[in-house]
């Protein structure tokens, strides 16, 4: 039945696509919800998944339709999750920059200079605790303020490799460091 439905969709039959959506709507929603854990995000993702399924149908090669749409749904949900995570990190970085600019306006008293020196020393010690492959990307991105592209060119790797290293470095820090240590 699915193969006939898919062939009708490929030939431009919109009603056939509606039937396909009806058949898999709940399944796709539950699949993306399992990753996103948010009803509104899962609803949005499910709609986007069906658009991806529709546009990708010409590449479908009859190897197990449910497995194929599940892979599309999970990959899309993971991409959405990553985008949300990045935007949260961007907001946090913006807040930190605002906080830094506020602290820059304060007069430099001996106490503040000493606290700043101690904080820098503490951060340096923490950075030295990082595994070598993580330390390089943390210093490059956060301290030297290099872009992913710059670091990828310097290390002669793909940008995606830098993104992965930075993600893993953040995960390592979350696992091994307490947030209270940095307050």
From TrEMBL:
Signal peptide from the UniProt entry: none
UniProt keyword Cell membrane present: no
RNA polymerase sigma-70 region domain sequence ranges: 20-86
Pfam hit, one: Sigma70_r4_2
UniProt KW keywords: Sigma factor, Transcription, Transcription regulation
Ranges where the RNA polymerase sigma factor 70 region 4 type domain occurs: 123-173
InterPro entries the record matches: RNA_pol_sigma-70-like (IPR039425), RNA_pol_sigma-70_dom (IPR014284), RNA_pol_sigma70_r2 (IPR007627), RNA_pol_sigma70_r4_t2 (IPR013249), RNA_pol_sigma_r2 (IPR013325), RNA_pol_sigma_r3/r4-like (IPR013324), WH-like_DNA-bd_sf (IPR036388)
Top-level lineage group: Bacteria
Family to which the UniProt record says this protein belongs: Belongs to the sigma-70 factor family. ECF subfamily.
Name of the protein in question: RNA polymerase sigma factor (Sigma-70 family)
Organism: Bacillus chungangensis
């Amino acid at each position: 039945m699915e193969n006939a439905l898919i062939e009708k969709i490929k030939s431009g039959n919109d009603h056939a696509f509606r039937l396909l959506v009806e058949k898999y709507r709940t399944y796709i929603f539950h699949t993306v919800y399992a990753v996103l854990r948010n009803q509104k995000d899962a609803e949005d993702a499910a709609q986007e998944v069906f658009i991806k399924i529709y546009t990708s149908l010409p590449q479908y090669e009859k190897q197990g339709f449910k497995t194929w749409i599940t892979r599309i749904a999970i990959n899309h949900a993971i991409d959405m999750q990553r985008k949300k995570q990045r935007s949260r990190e961007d907001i946090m970085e913006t807040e930190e920059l605002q906080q830094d600019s506020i602290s820059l306006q304060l007069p430099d008293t001996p106490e503040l200079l000493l606290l700043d020196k101690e904080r820098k020393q503490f951060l340096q010690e923490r950075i030295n605790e990082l595994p070598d492959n993580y330390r390089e990307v943390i210093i490059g991105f956060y301290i030297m303020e290099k872009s992913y592209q710059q670091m990828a060119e310097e290390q002669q790797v793909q940008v995606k490799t830098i993104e992965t290293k930075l993600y893993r470095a953040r995960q390592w820090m979350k696992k091994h460091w307490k947030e209270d240590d940095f307050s």
